[in-house]
Amino acid sequence: MRIILRGGRVMDPSRNLDGERDVLVEDGLLVDLAAPGQADSWAAEAQIIEVKGLLITPGLIDMHVHLREPGEEYKETIATGAAAAAAGGFTAVAAMPNTKPVNDNRSVTEFIFNQAKLAGQARVWPIAAMTKGSLGEELCEYGELAEAGAVAVSDDGRPVPSAQMMRRVLEYSKAFGLLAIAHAEELSLSAGGLMNEGRTSTRLGLAGIPAAGEEIAVFRDVRLAELTGTPLHLAHISTAGAVEIIRRAKAAGVPVTAETAPHYFTLTEEAVVGYRTEAKVNPPLRSRRDLEAVRAGLADGTIDVIATDHAPHSELEKRVEFDQAACGITGLETALPLTLNLVHQGVLTLAQAVTALSLNPAKILGLTGGALKKGCPADLTVIDLQRQWLVKGTEFKSLGRFTPFEGRTMIGRAVLTMVQGRIVHNLLP
């Protein structure tokens, strides 16, 4: 089948492309990016989709989501999570291993692949556990996991407490070509904490989590990456100190990359005031100083990736007292406009935003995608940069309906998402 996306503004940061093109797709592959009018010979045999005034980018990739299946399907399934991803403009997501059972073996990895294939929405790439059961005590069988298709290892949600064990993780992940993704948290400092430690936590009477708990763990893992010469990716960076440690490590040539999530460059700890459980997340929302540092880190390339840390929960976990509520924000369907808000504010260029949402995640995980290359799978996102819409959790594709952005007017939305030439999300007339 032939499809022409006609008249759109095509942006591909991998080759500094930004201009009007017709996008030609056939049998699931990107055939050409033609100058306006040059695809006329195709028109008689193709489905034509008019996208004049819209932005076409390589498919967005979210390298940090929690899809809850197997084990907690009442919170999210692979099918609902993949549908939410498509609705948010993501053609691929990487699923963290903290399922029940933990994805620490071939059978769970293969199950995730099979469920994603049945769903037929966004691609789902499994991330396997670093240690068995994510308990930090014994390495998983990395060779088996790599053969099954895992793209990385992480104990996300749980840091690896022992520096010696983390060293072994880095050594073995390098040997098997698996990216190590670290959850940076010093548990002896964060234990019992409910929100960022500071004046607001004192005013609310809530136990605090100091920024130092993240920064100490980031410093440890960066030094271990330097010691082993192993690429290390740091998840959900939230503090000014962590950003500075990563900046210095990169300047010194340490093979480290990092991500942050939209809530860390959009919200501060004040979002928790009123004991709002929809704003309870780990790492916690931080201070205004931290938020500005995260934005600066994105602007200067210290932070490479914007990932959602999509963590859906049900009413059972969220409509409870603050100290009992689960940590997590539903993020797949709001990440794009929140990122575009940085563009509107002049923090990032549009090309930087697309790079952080598409090109860099693909490069860091070693995935095909993130660029518009002839002959490659047609994974595309079409964005209306000016479209205004109101956030209503009840309208999410995700089963996670709790969001701190409920009722907020967003500007910018994915209006069409294509995965290997299949339209999996479409808001166009």
Spatial gap, N to C terminus: 21 Å
Mean pLDDT: 97
- Give the total of beta strands: 18
Number of helices: 14
Which runs of at least 5 residues are low in confidence (pLDDT < 50)?
Answer: none
| Helical content band | 25-40%
Going by CATH, what is the homologous superfamily of the largest domain? Metal-dependent hydrolases
Structural class computed from helices and strand pairing: alpha/beta
User: Major sheet, described briefly?
Assistant: 8 strands, mixed
**CATH topology term of the largest domain:** TIM Barrel
Radius of gyration: 21 Å
Shape, principal axes of CA atoms: globular
Q: Which architecture of the largest domain per CATH?
A: Alpha-Beta Barrel
Instruction: State which percent range the strand residues make up.
Output: 15-25%
CATH class of the largest domain: Alpha Beta
Oligomer: single chain
Integer tally of domains: 2
